[in-house]
Design the sequence.
């Protein structure tokens, strides 16, 4: 969802449950933070050029499974699934979490920032489908 659509949805909703409004704000903030911290290397639409693997649908996706991307051996052989906890650990210290990865250290230690980016990544993922595949 683009920021404009999110804002429009916020304005149009007559009596949104508070939780929904809060979620939308988190997703919107997460998109802004993603744009600042991750977008230069990661597309969220696989038809766009992407230096790193595209991150659309990444939540609960098996690590190293984006078809055609040339992953490091460490990532490809990790056998992990991108759960929210794994994504947090990765954002916080990707090199420590997975020695040998070729992603440059990003070091996002602020849990709120992690939360927002996670909310955004979840909003562009088919979590139920991915969970069914990784189970
Ligand atoms: C400087 C470029 C760069 C930045 C900035 C960057 N990444 Fe990455 N990312 C990469 C590369 C390159 C890989 C592939 C790593 C490998 O193969 O070891 C990667 C891999 C990943 C993966 C694994 C995906 C998969 O298909 O298994 C995730 C998840 C990820 N990055 C999330 C993020 C997030 C979230 C941010 C922002 C907080 C971010 N990255 C910032 C370059 C970057």
Sequence:
């Amino acid at each position: 969802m683009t920021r404009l659509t999110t804002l429009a949805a916020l304005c149009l909703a007559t009596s949104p449950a508070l939780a929904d409004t809060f979620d939308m704000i988190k997703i919107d903030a997460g998109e802004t933070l993603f744009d600042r911290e991750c977008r230069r290397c990661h597309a969220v639409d696989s038809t766009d050029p992407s230096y790193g693997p595209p991150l659309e649908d990444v939540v609960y996706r098996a690590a190293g499974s984006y078809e055609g991307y040339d992953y490091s051996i460490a990532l490809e052989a990790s056998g992990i699934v991108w759960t929210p906890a794994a994504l947090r650990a990765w954002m916080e210290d990707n090199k420590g979490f997975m020695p040998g990865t070729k992603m440059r250290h990003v070091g996002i230690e602020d849990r709120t920032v992690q939360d927002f980016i996670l909310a955004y990544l979840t909003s562009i993922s088919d979590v139920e489908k991915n969970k069914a595949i990784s189970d």
